[in-house]
Amino acid sequence: MTSFTPTDLGNKSGEVVEAAYRGPVEITKRGKRKFVLLTVEQFDRLSGRSAQRAYRVEDLKGAERDEILAGLDAVNLRDSGEWPSLNTAT
What pTM was estimated for this model as a whole? Predict the structure, then answer.
């Protein structure tokens, strides 16, 4: 993990931000870690605030549930080799 001091943060802010785009950056004071600088995406992923959500089929209702189940059925058919061929020429 890349490390900077609070002085670096003030004097080299561009370099610190660029390092944070590549991964977490620790800010140390007197050789001890005090803060970690993350991108929003990294923070959201760590805190469980990701835009990606997982649902149980039992929790879905109505058209949303039907659409998910139809999609799963289509994937199952495709993977089992029973998927209808698009090539109708004989």
Answer: 0.51
